[in-house]
């Protein structure tokens, strides 16, 4: 078991609650120190990143034996690779001799990783293959075996999504994923021949706390005002965007889901005029293909609504517009690295592939009509909350997330334009990180779903 640091009473100034939830007053607010404090950030790394399944990458990023990527999770440099026998592996990217970062390339293909410092070399399945001057070491196979590259203790794969955990005692991946596993499977079923990531990654660094990125993805409320340029563009092309009949779901375990019916079109699933007539005919044929392969009900569940899935703590799956996988890596309390991959159907025509990429970059790409707005929004939050950090006036250092509580209290399913998905994320976060909370009354336990696509397993 990875050692846990003891829970310290980190909270608002004076040790007060960081989350204030009151179902009589219909109030839910988060103390802004939760986004700011370096000590709390370190506690998140200790208690979340060191003890939870983390999304590492997709197995299609490593199509050939010997392929590797280097990646950092929870601050730990890792090697994500496919060994010469085809097995997907994750190693700590640290030479077992004296700890040097072993592989200093971001990606490539190799049979061996050689350390530049004293030239020890490791096979892509982790064995110590060569060390210069080995006559100065014990003539004992046990010595070499003890110097094998250290594997990350746990690695499991669901629908090609590769997760790792630094704590060997975490429950199985499917237990961790819970209801979220179903939504990953829905996306994976889109293509008759499966899905694959495209080569290349969009990597950008945001001057904001990682939880602001989660909030932003689970926040349908900001869509129309923040992305009004994009909404205007869609209207001009003849597509009416609506917030009606769109819902937010608490999937448990900190995972969240937005199901969006009127958001905008989606390649191969929901046609809109900007996709062109050729894509219109293909969308109709695609629906028939899915219905015959999967049945009418499942095909409808996959095709009829866009989805944004958050898998606690670091994976976002955008099954909207096109398909995008996004990974969050917290760097500091006020800094987050983001990686994003385009996810496509295996075997789709080149023209569709081109349309998909164009659609993706025009919206959720780092230069698109949505993502720069979102980044500016959460960087602006990070800048703004410095203004209210004032122990002499603590009453104004809170962020409000109460939208939709009155609706939920009446037993209605939360809407995507409310803030229920954020509330469930923050509740789980507080329980894992072990910070003080103040709760008055109980949240409604079984809301009646009126949405088109009620999550399984509720
Ligand atoms: S630290 Fe890697 S070979 Fe010495
Ligand atoms: Fe947005």
Automatic annotation (TrEMBL):
GO terms for molecular function: 2 iron, 2 sulfur cluster binding; dioxygenase activity; iron ion binding; monooxygenase activity; oxidoreductase activity, acting on paired donors, with incorporation or reduction of molecular oxygen. Residues 437-458 are annotated as: Disordered. It holds the Pfam family Ring_hydroxyl_A. Keywords: 2Fe-2S, Dioxygenase, Iron, Iron-sulfur, Metal-binding, NAD, Oxidoreductase. Transmembrane segments: none annotated. Residues 54-164 form the Rieske domain. CDD domains: Rieske_RO_Alpha_N. It comes from the Bacteria. Belongs to the bacterial ring-hydroxylating dioxygenase alpha subunit family. This is p-cumate dioxygenase. It comes from Micromonospora endophytica.
């Amino acid at each position: 078991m990875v050692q846990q640091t003891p829970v310290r009473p980190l909270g608002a100034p004076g040790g007060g609650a960081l989350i204030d939830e009151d179902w009589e007053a219909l109030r839910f607010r988060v103390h802004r120190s939760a986004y700011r404090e370096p000590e709390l950030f370190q506690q998140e790394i200790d208690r979340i990143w060191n003890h939870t399944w983390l999304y590492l990458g997709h197995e299609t990023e490593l199509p050939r034996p010997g392929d590797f990527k280097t990646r950092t999770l929870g601050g730990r440099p890792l090697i994500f690779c496919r060994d010469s026998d085809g097995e997907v592996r994750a190693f700590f990217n640290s030479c077992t001799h004296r700890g040097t970062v072993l592989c200093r390339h971001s990606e490539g293909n190799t049979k061996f990783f050689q350390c530049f410092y004293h030239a020890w070399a490791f096979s892509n399945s982790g064995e110590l293959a060569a060390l210069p001057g080995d006559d100065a070491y014990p003539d004992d196979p046990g010595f070499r075996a003890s110097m094998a590259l250290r594997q990350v203790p746990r690695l499991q794969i669901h629908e090609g999504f590769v997760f790792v955990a630094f704590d060997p005692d975490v429950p199985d991946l499917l237990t961790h994923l819970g209801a979220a596993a179903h939504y990953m499977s829905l996306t994976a079923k889109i293509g008759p021949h499966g899905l694959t990531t495209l080569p290349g990654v969009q990597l950008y660094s945001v001057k904001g706390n990682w939880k602001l990125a989660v909030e932003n993805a689970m926040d349908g409320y900001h869509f129309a005002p923040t992305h009004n340029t994009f909404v205007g563009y869609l209207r001009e092309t003849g597509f009416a965007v609506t917030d009606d009949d769109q819902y937010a779901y608490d999937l448990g375990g900190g995972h969240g889901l937005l199901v969006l019916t009127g958001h905008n079109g989606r390649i191969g699933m929901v046609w809109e005029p900007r996709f062109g007539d050729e894509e219109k005919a293909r969308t109709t044929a695609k629906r028939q293909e899915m219905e015959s392969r999967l049945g009418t009900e499942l095909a409808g569940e996959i095709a009829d609504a866009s989805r944004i899935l958050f898998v606690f703590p670091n994976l976002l799956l955008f099954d909207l517009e096109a398909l995008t996988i996004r990974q969050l890596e917290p760097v500091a309390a006020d800094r987050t690295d983001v990686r994003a991959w385009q996810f496509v159907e295996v075997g789709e025509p080149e023209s569709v592939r081109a349309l998909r990429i164009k659609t993706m970059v025009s919206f959720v790409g780092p230069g698109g009509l949505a993502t720069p707005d979102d980044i500016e929004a959460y960087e602006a939050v990070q800048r703004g909350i410095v203004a209210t950090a004032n122990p002499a006036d603590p009453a104004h250092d809170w962020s409000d997330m109460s939208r939709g509580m009155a609706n939920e209290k009446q037993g209605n399913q939360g809407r995507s334009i409310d803030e229920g998905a954020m509330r469930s994320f923050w509740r789980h976060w507080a329980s894992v990180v072990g910070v003080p909370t103040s709760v008055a009354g109980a949240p409604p336990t079984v809301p009646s779903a009126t949405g088109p696509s009620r999550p399984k397993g509720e």
